[in-house]
């Protein structure tokens, strides 16, 4: 690929299809947990396709640093938060504000969802002098 003004394009910097999330989310052999992760270099976002097995759950947790968008792609379940239980079904787009406690439970057929959020900065190792 070449840009007529700047020359060769970096393949990582052009729009492209990354995967078929519907196929990954419903695959019989898909493991529980993150079945796909956005891994492109230079990205500003993180994204994960997460699969929870039937009757499984993600225990209550808080994401203190980033807001998260959650899109249900297969199955059904329940989001529990300070707002009370909310049903999740394919096509649901849910905003999870940073700092809020939440848990997610899968229904009888399991639950697969895509999360998207700003990429967190990498871990920095500092000396004790730097942290004082």
From TrEMBL:
InterPro entries: RmlC-like_jellyroll, RmlC_Cupin_sf. This is Uncharacterized protein. It comes from Streptomyces albus.
